[in-house]
Amino acid sequence: MSHRSTRGRSASRTVALALAASLSLAGCGLLDNGGSEPTPAETEPALERVYDSQFTRDGTFQSHISVDGAQDIDFVYTLYPTKSTPRTNEWYPRGKKYFSFTFQAYDLARDLRDPFRTKRKVYLQKIKVTSRTITSGGGKTQKPYQLNAIARNITFDPEPLSTKYGMLITSPKGAFELRNQAIKPTSLDTRGIDLMFTATVWIQTEAGGSQYVQREVKQTVPIAIFESEEKTEVAEIPINAN
């Protein structure tokens, strides 16, 4: 047989009465302002909506891309902010924002330390980049960054290994690199920018062979832009510094 303590029953009754009294007083206080209904409080703080971007979140972006007709060739785009505007969480619509990028190819059919002559050569002929803005109010699309050039004429190396197909980008002896590229200011309602890359390449079908196939290697890189009327802060750095 179970027993319940009279003291426990009395204590419970006392707590219940006190709680009811406090709720009654609280209710009077809520209706005290002219009898108006209280405004419900937000249960969670509002979260700022940020354009999803690996580049912004991690401070760098890298992709690995394969194309038809070039099995085990890995194309790698790498982007990162330069020291002039290194804090990607402070990239605002106003002011220029600077980034650098590289593009390289790896023959995964061979080991990293295998002789270079045993690897298929890949040549970069042209590099093209377009852009578009994403706005909060559906405003007019802007194009704050554009590039369309013969790769060997603009890469950081003034004397890249080149043939009629373009400049060599097969690792470890070749790579395309472009530094301190400026993204122009945009409208204040900008919340994101997409950079769309297209590389025109020629790929050797077999190591040491004379046959090549042409392909385009494409990649879109999203970048978040944060709401502010401030200008993105730009630090002075030596020319062509990273």
UniProtKB/TrEMBL annotation:
Signal peptide: 1-26
Keyword annotations from UniProtKB, A to Z: Signal
Domain of life: Bacteria
Protein name: Lipoprotein
Source organism: Nocardioides marinus
